[in-house]
Design goal:
- This protein has 279 residues and is an alpha/beta fold.
- It has an 8-stranded parallel β-barrel with strand order 1-2-3-4-5-6-7-8, surrounded by 4 helices.
- α1 runs parallel beside α2, α3 packs parallel to α4 and α4 crosses α5.
- The protein is globular, with a radius of gyration of 17 Å.
- The two termini are 14 Å apart.
């Protein structure tokens, strides 16, 4: 049990950001990791040139790193946005334009988890209209994910840092997931259980794990306070990951934390080098 018993991957959109995107897979590999995940790397466009997609695939392949999670287009992230799929107008259109692009890229690198961030509430927009649009777009995304053998992830964020994001409790995300699965009949919509965000919401983490481990398709961690590496805050992350494993979760645990003032490569001292490669 404990950290060496987990399957970790490195989020290359929050770690190794001191390097250009195409150098990050090799940096993760040099630190001992063989699995990585990414937010949508092209925040300005849902449909980047094929040459840029090919270059990212090559960087992943050359480094020997497996992409295990990818966000659909999510607007300006990092930045003010928290997704696009529930935002009426241009952003919803951009999300739809991205669905097949992201799914095809995932297929090209054998990535089997696609994360769809819900999007913020928009001033002047009816929340019910936004939720109906979200369900429509999530159904499209779930079908595209299924086409390439992937799950669709829906994530809870936290209210202090994302006050306009409506899915700020585990039950809110689970409700959306259940609606998507009911609409598609595919059963491939799953919960992205992020222990940092849930803790920022003040949720009972052990209870969330017990209630929703069976519906969880991916896990992400950072310590709290500070969103730093495990051990920089007060969350019992090792114990919580053991609880997840005991509850039947056998998937990936994404390291989605800030390295602080040091280079990313120096932020992994909490994890023995022998436990970093995927198993």
């Amino acid at each position: 049990m404990g950290y060496p018993d987990q399957r970790f991957d490195v989020n290359l959109s929050i770690l190794f950001t001191e390097l250009p995107l195409l150098e990050r897979p090799a940096a993760a590999a040099a630190a001992g990791f063989t699995a990585v995940e990414l937010w949508w790397p092209w925040i300005e466009t849902p449909t980047p040139p094929q040459a840029e997609l090919d270059a990212l695939k090559k960087a992943l392949d050359d480094a020997g790193t497996q992409l295990v999670g990818l966000n659909f287009y999510a607007g300006q992230l990092p930045g003010p946005d928290r997704g696009a799929l529930s935002v009426p107008g241009t952003e919803s259109d951009r999300f739809r334009a991205n669905i097949e692009v992201a799914a095809d890229f995932a297929a090209s690198v054998d990535c089997t988890a696609l994360n769809a961030l819900y999007g913020n509430r928009v001033e002047g927009a009816d929340p019910q209209v936004q939720d109906a649009l979200a369900l429509e777009n999530l159904v499209l995304a779930a079908r595209a994910a299924d086409r390439v053998g992937a799950v669709l992830l829906v994530e809870t964020l936290n209210k202090p840092e994302s006050p306009l994001y409506p899915l700020v409790g585990a039950p809110a995300a689970i409700e959306v997931i259940d609606k998507v699965n009911a609409a598609t009949g595919l059963g491939n919509a799953k919960f992205l259980l992020d222990l940092y965000h849930l803790s920022m919401n003040g949720e009972d983490l052990s209870q969330v794990i017990k209630a929703y481990a069976a519906k969880t398709g991916h896990v992400q961690i950072a310590d709290n306070p500070g969103r730093g590496a495990p051990g920089t805050g007060s969350l019992p992350l090792e114990q919580l990951l053991d609880e997840l494993k005991d509850a039947g979760y056998a998937g990936w645990v994404g390291l989605e934390y800030k390295p602080g003032d040091r280079p990313s490569a120096e932020s992994f001292d909490w994890l023995p080098a022998s436990a970093r490669a995927a198993r």
